[in-house]
Known about the structure:
This protein is an alpha+beta fold.
Amino acid sequence: LYLYILVFLSSCINDSETVINGSTMGTTYTVKVNNHLVDTKYLKTQLDSVLFNINNTLSTYVKNSEINKINKSRLNDYNVSEEFSFVLRKSLFYANLSDGYYDPTVYPFVDAWGFGPSDISKRPDDKVIKEIKNNVSYKFLNIRDNILSKSNVFTYIDLSSIAKGYAVDFLCDYLLNIGYYDIMVDIGGELRCHSRSSDNSRIIGVANPYDSKIYLKTKINNHSIATSGNYNNFTMYDGVEYSHIINPKTGYPVKNQILSCTVISEKCIDADALATMLMVLPIENGLSIIDNVDNTECLILSKGERGISEFMSSGFKRFIVD
Length: 322
């Protein structure tokens, strides 16, 4: 649902690095390990297995995934896996933090506006939006231990705005646990780097929303970075342009000037969710939230009178490469 525009440029890791590529979650992944004595075929098999299991839990595109079983059921209470519980809890945390501007139940609105699998050829009328709104709210969800309760059985859960970040963290932790320490994991532009040496930072570029060239470069080590964009994914109805970014509180596409939001945080699941959240919030509100979240910074690019206007959280500059 969101365009990720991070550009991997280079790193201070040496040429002994092993690179593994593959496909997952409707996109591609890249794993870089600073060790040339890697059984690449075996490691790729292990990584693919991990990602397969994550998809079977969180993907709405896997027919019998855990999330699809929940969405298709009309029960109020569900026993869910530890993995599903963790990701949903994180999603609900950010829904609360943003007062519903980030909401894991927004998907029916997204689909109604033509950005989902349904064959939509005209603008949804206000009556349709009002009907959908009856079932869209994170407040319909509650999770305690591993018991999910839905006060509205027709509420649809979609964790795609946070699942890639979770998968990046999971792969990174997996690699650390089996003894690799200088690593980079990237899934569709959601990226996390780790090294025992402070000298082994990776240089990650943030794209210019207008031409996809490098807008600025960041230096990342033991952090994650994610970007969401809003400048080339839209639909037209009767000559009017509508953004694919939907405000969950209203059910209508946002009409702000934000082009992209980049978030740097320790964990990728947080960077992923926050980058999505910032696309909907007023810029001042978003910056205020970020400045009150520990170890997290952001860059917001918006349309300005003479090109791009940029807004940074208080500590973002320390990640910028001159």
